Amino acid sequence: MRKIVLILCALLAAPSFAAEPGWSCRNTDAEITCWDGSCDVVTGEGFTPMSVTFRSGRLDVCAYTWCWSGSATVLEDDMLVYVQSRQLRDARNKDGDPGVFQLALNKKSRLAVLNGEGLAHPMHCEPWACSEDCDHPQ
């Protein structure tokens, strides 16, 4: 019994190698693009959902065959998360202008709004733990 207690204490005191927490979001209901004061909404099968992941100060916004990626500022409390970046780079054109995005998430409802580069998407989100391939969560 004493050995079991010692082993349990050692395991509890050992450093944790848990997966890195974050969130993964998709706009499964609609694609909304806004330019010059008006917005167009596409629903149903007329669009391809985007994916957004964020964790530890990194934001990845992927659409169709390209992704904007880079560092981000994260403000978080027990219910809300706000993520913003003015420096996301398009993987296809690293010398181009950086993308500017913001995402506001309610952890309880798991609903978010992504805004940036002419997009204004409502998104459904799930907690995501990066373990092996952090660059490709989906």
As laid out across the biggest beta sheet, the strand order is 1-4-5-6-8-9-10-11
Return the domain count. 1
Averaged pLDDT? 81
Order of helices and strands: HEEEEEEEEEEE
Shape: globular
**Approximate helicity band:** under 10%
Overall number of strands: 11
Low-confidence stretches: 3-19
Q: In percent, how much strand structure appears in the residues?
A: over 45%
Number of helices: 1
Please give the largest β-sheet: 8 strands, antiparallel, barrel
Structural class: mainly beta
State the end-to-end CA separation. 45 Å
> What does the radius of gyration come to?
19 Å
Structure summary:
By secondary structure, the protein is mostly beta strands. It has one helix at residues 2-13, and strands at residues 20-26, 30-35, 38-43, 51-55, 58-63, 66-71, 73-76, 80-90, 99-106, 111-116, 119-130.
